[in-house]
Amino acid sequence: MHPRSALLATVVLFQSLQAGTDPMEFRRVAHEYYQWRDAAYPVATSAAGDHRFDARITDYGMTEVLRRRQHVSDLLLRVRSLDTAGWSKDDRVDLVLFQAELAGADFFGRTLDPEHSDPQLYVNECTNSIFTLLQKDYAPRRVRALAATARLEQIPALLRVGRANLTQPVRLYASLASEAARRGDDLYTVSLMTLADDLSATERTRLITARDGAVNALHQYADWLDAGVNKMPQWQPMGEVSYNYLLKRVLLLPFGAHDVAHLGEVELARYRALEAMLRDPSLASPDPSRARHVPKDEAEFLAAYQSRLKEIVDFLQANRLVTIPQYIGPFQIRQLPEAFKPTSPGGFMNPPGVYDKDPGGFYYIPTYNPKSGNFYIRAAIEDPRPILGHEGIPGHFLQISIANHVEDEIRRQQGDSVFAEGWALYGEEMLMREGLYPDNSAAQGQILRLSRYRAARIGVDVNLHTGRWSFEQAVKYFMESGGLDREAAEGEAAGAASSPSQKISYIVGKWQIMRLLGRYRDSQGAAFRLGAFHDQLISYGTLPLSVIEWLMFDDESSLREALK
What we know:
mainly alpha, 27 helices, 3 strands
């Protein structure tokens, strides 16, 4: 369905919804919204595992951008005005979730205005348009190569639109976008060409022509950014009022900026002290020289990394710490593409998408270098299990795979970062405290350092976006308080500036989960079992924890605090 057709269908449905307050009509509107969104953002939809729109990229012409923004804003206003008298608890829960989802789409469009300010938006669209076709063998190579060709042919026009739109490009974002554009050639010239073997001569020529045109356009875009970067405005914070709106109305957190910052300070102090209590505090800084074996090359490194997952799974099952469903697919370790390194220095995880028929997932880790100072590389050589547990099982891969099977569409569509990152970070320490790692081991030291720098992330995110700190102050804080090397610290600070609130997700989510765990233990008494808590917690999907508290304990107090 074309985005505009879906928009008209949603308007018609909403008119019928206004005539009454039938929750089934509300659910129909939500379903139509997801269809409209998926058609409007075809690259994101490919990433989610729906490949109907693989030959298209997003229309960033400002007329279309403003039309999309207005649709979301209007829908949010009307959904907020619904009379829910007589609705069931489940219907009211889903209305709150849908409102928050719309509030997020509205906030990030209107408040941050990335089309005018963030050159990364357009580079990311180009990169992801191809990356999403390469990740999985969801269709024959020729089918994916033809889709890639169609997308590549649209990239020069997209970047011209980007130049026209970028009336106030931010200097930091421009530098990151230029770096990503220049470092991404291998995605197009090497990785993409693995799909070309089954093309006819004519099709292959068309692909190469489109590829070369796209790469040239990306380099010209980077040249344009570099030429004007010194005249571009510095990065500016959104301010405390907007940041608090994001925390409460979008993330449904019962905290304001001050509360979140204070939590970060408390947790940072705790984990720095716990590092100091190790018999050998240097264990908190990964050191490949302490490893039993240093892999000789990238292939051996990735294979050794992935092989350690079985140890974690066996431990979880032996101790009944979480139920692993039969539908869980394979989890693989892959090399991080160069284009993603500027803002993802530690790599990133790709779980199966909400529409994915393939249950497999991936963790992309930086290029192997046994002499690297990068924290994640050093940690992966010495003992990869803490990060592997975070990204794989019981962390993101398991949790999101389960969330994709939630029956309720609105809950299945949720992707709350605070819950997702909180669960993965909670799992790191849970495995340690349940006995997977011995006391005063390198793995234990690594877990303490990982929590320490996740706590430091809070101070950076809050103080950057409320205007208290400069970018350089954020980098220094990561190094001095978080214990990171400069490369990792600069990447972390860039990620915080580019994605407001993402960096607070880890510690804030972990704290909320631990609060629920204590409450659950008290309610269960002698019948308490830790694995039962874990199974119930992740059965709800990737929802805000204030909503999970309502579902688990029939207690709306945290949610009311967020919405007041």
